[in-house]
Design brief:
The complex is a heterodimer of chains A (378) and B (405). With 378 residues, chain A is α/β, with parallel strands linked by helices. Chain A is 30% helix and 12% strand. The longest helix of chain A has 27 residues, at 78-104. Chain B has helices at 2-10, 14-40, 55-69, 71-79, 86-110, 133-160, 167-193, 206-232, 239-269, 276-283, 292-310, 312-315, 318-336, 338-344, 360-389. Classes of the chains: A alpha/beta (378), B mainly alpha (405). Chains A and B meet through helix 3, helix 7 and helix 8 of A and helix 6 of B.
């Protein structure tokens, strides 16, 4: 990805000072960004010369030159022009934010700073390691500032020689739905809309797999007489149609086979939802809410961190767990052992044993999506 | 020119002012509804995880067709030198611009995160081209908008200055716009056609049928608009022009009907698992019948209009013609709108049948966007008619030409 940045990085000149002032990413040694514990001062010395005057004009009202002339009477190509336009917009709005914060204090200032950087950050898929860490740090700090609670957020990458796969034993599943509730808790899904990644379909014995006649929203005692159960969720296809259709590459397949979403890059067009043949994707129709005491604070950037209104989300095979060597929550919660998860590239894994020794099948194979989710029976 | 035309569009007869005030009021209601949607999220609409596209995308799809139809007038006028259409063509292109702006507004209204739409701008965002058909659609729609603004602008501007437009400048643009119009419609059809998850859309006839229905509904609307312009302004539109456009409507409507028959045959002669959406649309599934009244309004209207228009005698009677154009427009709006989008999601990937009913907020936003389209079109049409009639002319020397809007 070096030198081939496809996204927009705001260059406010903050990085230029990084060498002599590594304490803060914003490049300022005092005041301003508010990430310093040093006492606040009211002089604002943004290092990018282009914006000095513009900021001073807005902040202190000392009009010496016309701010517009400074920004626009410079020879530049269109791209630079656009950058600077956006940047000056940001400085302007940031200035409004900061000027208010003289009353409201450092915390508000810092929140505003974080919000601005988050609003204009790039696509996670294309970020460098440092940028990824920076956004994770910002999100953790933001949560701390807002909720007075500490969360632990990781950005662990896919490991080499790992390809996750999943198998579901239809004979064993009894429809207890412990997997569903464990998933909701683990992944901080919206409690108001009762969003669930997993659906358990209750089917009648002797009719075969009749999904259209199955009940995926039952409330009676299980296992019900004369029925069997089959769970569906995101199948993490090897050839995922949802990824192809996304207009902004906000969703992609990771090297270990997980299909993930950058919640902050998603624009909420729901094209992926229309493209998914497995009902694997969910949309936040309103602001997702989880009671503070129920929030799972062990989070991953691509996984169970808090989502916002108007973005897609989906099963990630619990990326926060699976990439640290644990089974997904649904596998761990299943009381019957119907769920098997593991590394497809490891010849000694249980999943490989299942694939080699059981008669396995996948759903809608004719669509060419190559799911990594197999069903089998004892 | 800006000042002149601004002056021109803010002055007019009483009906004109009443019309514009009415549209403004509807737009304000739409904006209020949109503010509710922004505040609450898309949960303010009737869309759910089961039916995730609704009224907005339906209207978007239909309006792409209306926009594409302007080209049916451009081609004979500029490329085939049929002088008849010259007056109609500026109106047609104005209609295309208004329809495209409505399309873009509908797409933005449908977005979960309108504040991060800059992610789609090539250069500063990430554009999933050529893989995503939506990325293609953004390009073709904006490109078509650009073409349809620049060509009439150039012609009108020359006329405004009292000069003739140079054909060597606008003819290549017109030819490009002809190809481009087919492009916007095919790409929009491919948006749905390319989804293997939705058998109702994953159908090779979808693209051609989009074109046929668009070339029926679009010119039908143009005829209605021209009729309105004829009765409200001094702008002269000859009967021959309207008759020729009517001819286009008939042929397109006939082709559309043939394709409809072919589609129905395929779905119902040997129904498969993939015909369930069509069953839902035409007969309902498991007692869920929300779309039945709509589609059974659309199909008879469509057939009736096509049959009536096929007879020369009836078509040449303005009253019958206008009536037919109106019902054809409504029929295709239903059929290519939610008659196409909603059944794509029903039944769901696992056969779940969950119906969709738009909410008041959604309808309010939709009406607001339609009012916005009508507002924009009225302004564009008034300016171009003013220039074409010679009422609006370049007078002062100091007005700079390049700053036109």
């Amino acid at each position: 990805m070096d030198g081939k940045k496809k996204w927009f990085t705001l260059d406010l000149g903050w990085n230029r000072k990084e060498s002599d002032n590594s304490a803060c990413g914003c490049g300022k040694s005092t005041g301003g960004c508010g990430s310093h514990s040093a006492p606040p001062r009211n002089d604002y010395s943004i290092s990018a010369e282009e914006f000095d005057a513009a900021v001073e004009d807005t902040m202190a009202g000392e009009v010496q030159r016309d701010g517009f002339q400074q920004v626009f009477d410079v020879k530049m190509d269109r791209r630079t022009a656009f950058r600077k336009l956006t940047a000056s917009l940001m400085v302007g709005a940031g200035a409004v934010g900061t000027s208010c914060s003289m009353v409201a204090g450092e915390e508000t200032k810092e929140k505003a700073q974080i919000d601005w950087e988050e609003q204009f950050k790039g696509n996670y898929k294309l970020m460098t390691q440092e940028e990824r860490q920076a956004t994770v740090d910002r999100l953790v700090r933001s949560y701390q500032l807002r909720k007075k609670e500490n969360i632990k957020m990781t950005a662990t990458d896919a490991s080499e020689d790992v390809l996750f796969g999943y198998a579901f034993n239809i004979s064993k599943c009894q429809g207890y739905m412990d997997c569903v509730s464990a998933c909701v808790k683990e992944n901080n899904q919206d409690r108001n809309s009762e969003m669930q990644y997993i659906r358990i379909h209750e089917m009648k014995d002797g009719e075969g797999f009749k999904f259209n006649k199955a009940d995926d929203n039952y409330y009676h005692e299980v296992p019900a007489e004369g029925h069997f159960y089959m769970g569906t969720q995101c199948f993490h296809c090897d050839n995922p149609p949802c990824v192809d259709v996304c207009p902004v590459e906000a969703t992609w397949r990771e090297k270990d086979g997980l299909v993930v979403i950058d919640y902050d890059w998603c624009i909420g067009c729901r094209y992926c939802m229309a493209a998914c043949p497995y009902d694997g994707r969910r949309f936040n129709w309103s602001k997702p809410e989880v009671p503070e005491e129920e929030v799972n604070k062990n989070q991953h950037y691509l996984g169970n961190r808090m989502r916002k209104k108007g973005v897609m989300e989906k099963c990630t095979f619990c990326v926060q767990r699976s990439r640290s060597g644990k089974d997904p929550a649904c596998v761990e919660a299943c009381p019957t052992g119907a769920r098997i998860f593991g590394n497809l590239l490891d010849p000694d894994s249980t999943i490989r044993w299942v694939l080699e020794n059981k008669k396995v099948f996948r759903l809608k194979e004719d669509l060419g999506t190559e799911p990594k989710f197999w069903y089998f029976m004892d | 020119m800006v000042r002149d035309s601004l002056g021109y569009i803010t002055h007019g007869s009483k009906p004109y002012h009443v019309w514009m005030i009415f549209l403004s009021a509807v737009m304000l209601v739409g904006m209020y509804c949109y503010s509710i949607q922004i505040e609450e999220g898309l949960s303010a609409t009737g869309m759910t995880d089961r039916v995730s596209w609704g009224l907005y995308i339906s209207n978007f799809t239909f309006l792409v067709g209306v926009a594409a139809a302007a080209v049916m007038l451009v081609m004979p006028t500029y490329v085939l030198h049929d002088i008849d259409f010259k007056h109609a063509v500026l109106i047609g292109e104005g209609l295309a611009v208004a329809a495209l702006l409505m399309c873009l507004a509908f797409v933005v209204a449908d977005m979960g995160g309108p504040s991060v739409l800059w992610h789609m701008i090539p250069g500063i965002g990430v554009f999933n081209f050529p893989s995503s058909m939506l990325a293609w659609d953004v390009i073709v729609l904006n490109g078509y908008l650009f073409i349809n603004i620049t060509i009439p602008l150039y012609i009108l501007f020359r006329h405004y200055q009292g000069k003739e437009a140079n054909p060597r400048v606008y003819i290549p643009g017109s030819i490009l716009s002809v190809l481009w119009a087919v492009g916007i419609h095919l790409v929009t059809a491919f948006l749905y056609e390319g989804l293997q998850a939705r058998p109702f859309w994953n159908n090779a006839l979808l693209g051609p049928r989009f074109l046929a229905s668009a070339f029926a509904a679009g010119p039908a609307l143009i005829i209605l608009v021209l009729a309105g312009i004829r009765s409200f302004t001094a702008f002269k539109i000859e009967d021959r022009t309207i008759k020729k456009i009517a001819m286009i409507v008939v042929v397109a409507a006939q082709i559309n009907l043939i394709m409809l028959i072919s589609e129905l045959f395929k779905e119902f002669y040997a129904p498969t698992h993939h015909s369930e959406s069509a069953y839902y649309l035409f007969f309902g599934l498991e007692g869920k019948t929300a779309l039945l009244p709509w589609i059974w309004t659309a199909i008879p209207l469509n057939v009736l209009a096509t049959i009536l228009l096929t007879f020369h005698k009836l078509r040449n009677n303005p009253k019958v013609l206008y009536f037919c154009c109106f019902i054809l427009f409504v029929a295709i709006w239903i059929e290519k709108g939610f008659g196409l989008i909603v059944p794509g999601f029903i039944p769901g990937p696992y056969g779940k049948i969950a119906e969709y009913t738009p909410t008041g907020v959604e309808i309010g936003v939709t009406l607001g966007i339609w009012a916005m389209g009508a507002f924009i079109f009225t302004m564009l049409a008034k300016t171009s008619i003013g220039i074409e009639l010679g009422k609006l002319r370049y007078k002062k020397k100091s007005v700079r030409g390049s700053k036109t809007a």
